[in-house]
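tool_log.txt
---
The assistant was asked to compare two proteins side by side. It first ran the structure predictor on the initial sequence, then on the second. Raw inputs and outputs are pasted verbatim so the downstream comparison step can read them without reformatting.
(1)
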Amino acid sequence: MNLVFSSSHRSIGVITYILLSGASPFLGDSKQETLGNVSAIAYQFDEELFSSTSELAKSFIRQLLEKDTRSGVRVSSHLEVKGQMRKKYQYVEF
């Protein structure tokens, strides 16, 4: 199995989605539907689960889950989002 950079980004996007919502982004009513959702990268931000999630965080997830790897997140985008979040939430690094 070859791990490509885009799949690493998608994994981070899925993990971030789960951490912020407690739900799987691609979960369907059956295994077949779930596999179809994964293949199509079909997900949505459930209003109830994401009501207190910032647009910045949702944008970060969207970019990580982007199907077209040419328009996906770049390292510079990660750093920019991290900087914006640090300013907004005044994170303290240890």
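(2)
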Amino acid sequence: MKGNLSNKSGIQTILSSEVEGKLAKWLIDCAKKGDLRTKEDLKIAATDYDKYENDPPKFGPKGPSIKCLNGFLKRHPSVSVRTPENLGKASATVTQDDINRFFSKFFIHGRKWFRRCPQSS
């Protein structure tokens, strides 16, 4: 049987492949800067793109579904979802004062250490 059959299967994406590519790049760029994004952030960004790209918007009032997000992640394997590790009690209770005290002590002791280092010529 001959005909024009597509190799792609599954439901058609709501956002264009160009917009999906931009979203994937945005997520990767944020991660490289240490600014990790959540699935909720992705939903909000996708909903915003949908509002501006489609008239009327194709996503419902709750934004893209879990199935839609999982499809996005399958189409963009360079983007992954990670579960954050739980912080220990000591890390979770660090205050600004604790950080200030640490750096104050670090600079005092650091100056003493650097004075003892041999000078390079």
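---
observation on (2): The two ends are 82 Å apart (CA to CA). Residues 51 and 68 are 16 Å apart (CA to CA).
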